[in-house]
Predict the structure.
Amino acid sequence: MSVSLADHLTAILRRVLALPNVSVTPAADTRFGDYQTNAAMALAKERKTNPRALAAEMVAQLSADAELATLSEPPTIAGPGFINFTLKPGHLADRVAALLADDRLGVPQVEKPQRIAVDFSSPNIAKPMHVGHLRSTLIGDCLVRVARFLGHTVITDNHLGDWGTQFGKVIHGWKAFLDRGQLEADAINELVRVYIAADAAAKADAAVADLCRQELTKLQAGDPENMGIWRECVRLSLEELNRTYARLGIQFDYVYGESHYNAALPGVVERLLAAGIARESDGAICVFFEDHPRLADAPAIVRKKDGGFNYTTSDIATAELRVQEWKCDQMWCVVGAPQSRHFEALNVILERMGLGAQITHIPFGSILGPDRKIMRTRSGDNVSLRELLDEAEERAAAPIAERNPELPLAERAEIARVIGLGAVKYAELSQHRLTDYIFDWDRMLAFQGNTAPYLQNAYVRIRSIFRKLDGAWSAPAALGLTEPAEKNLAKKLAQFAEAVPSVLDDFRPNLLANYLYELADAFHGFYESCPVLKAEGAARETRLALCEATARVLRGGLGLMGIGVPERM
RNA sequence: GCACCCGUAGCUCAAUUGGAUAGAGCAUCUGACUACGGAUCAGAAGGUUUUAGGUUCAAAUCCUAACGGGUGCGCCA
């Protein structure tokens, strides 16, 4: 079982000082060393002593430790009481050698694997996926990949919006306006068209609005004709959704839409009433939160006065399934920030019910257009995800054609696909999830800066080196690091073991993106100052090993974000 | 009105969750130009972290208030 540098140093620190809560972190400023601890300052405050004097005592104990001496030079004190560790080149070399021999690239598995339901993407039926679904879909997919890689058992579930009041209008529109030919050609657009037509008609004519409500009531009562139309809508929508997910390389274990829980909803409400958690108010069944300052003025409605249920009820039923049948320890929901209040209320209810697990809401901000408003087309519509992905591939194709015109057209198209999709995914995942960000084609497809093409290019340059090699190459058993750029790159490679787990600390894929960018940056610095193929003997083998390790970490790290790497570009 | 999120270089974003002199990329300027893919690298310049207080060895980060922006507030999800 491997252990990261930070964890290893932390373990030594705790053992030597007999302090269970201190820790070692990567140095904020590498001029002082590679890792640091502020244990002396924290403890000095507690004991009301001088932090530098305390640091001196700690350093004396640490310097005598044999295990520490295998990985670090004797620690030093700086500033108000920081203790700094400088890693020994020999240890870093061993780490890179170990990484090359390890399918997991040195990343340890979690000690306590959890069973986690992850709910993400959640598009609506009878509507196209649009740019607004991008964040949930990509963040969710990345978190799932990372969690699985770290050893958790993850059950993915796409909680489709396949039930609700809008189906009254869809069904009326289907009956009144459907064009079968258009439905064959492009089902989703036709479903949207008939919905819009029905919506307009309902607004203009109260009788039509009433008709829509009747269609909904019939559907909810299980009317065979309306159920048939609804099933057809779901089937057609899933076909289109699955094309998009296949394109994005995303799979779900379950696609249980809201409708999956319909049968369970009356029972949920009955139990809430019986337990005294819910009560009647204005004809509706509500849960009140008088003792809860943020929720006090907004009860959750679990049954409307017309007898219908809404999303709070079906989310309760969903949580029950995930905990009671799937035996999940955790439930993650990747859903936009505006719904945070809903999840807070939901968790209060789940706690009162004694379910034994809470929902972890993983919120995110909005994608904005160039005008800093929520991204829309010129006519004010949502931007279709399919068209957006098409455009990404088209835009990625141009520089490849310019740079590598000799490549066969099919290969160029495949490269454009990998780069275009990668650019869109990376632009999303390299962003702090809570910030609203501006969708900018030129920036995400640029080959400079913190972009997917920059990282992919670093990988391509390495592959180019190995293509120039005659015959197969296998990694040497031992490396010798001499140049600062070599040591810097080796340290960065070893820190993959810290970067991956950090993603789950606060559900932050951008920490992995930051790491990969820094790795590519360290590689480019090394590449400039340390010739690989022109070097000889052990130096050449060491440098090839650093190249190979960098390529594997780049490929593995991007893979955790669902991003591929081309061999040429 | 109340609640939540946010405010960092000209622009777009980071900041290991309370640590050292707040970092990158664009754009600007100076170098490296027969180059293992220059789609690169080295460097310069750019900041009172919206403002005013407070907490402490230490604050972009925590607390209070103001200002500015976004979102949400009983039968949609």
Remarks:
- DSSP finds 22 helices and 13 strands in chain A.
- Chain A has a mean pLDDT of 93.
- Residues 166-248 of chain A form one domain.
- The first strand of chain A starts at residue 25 and ends at 26.
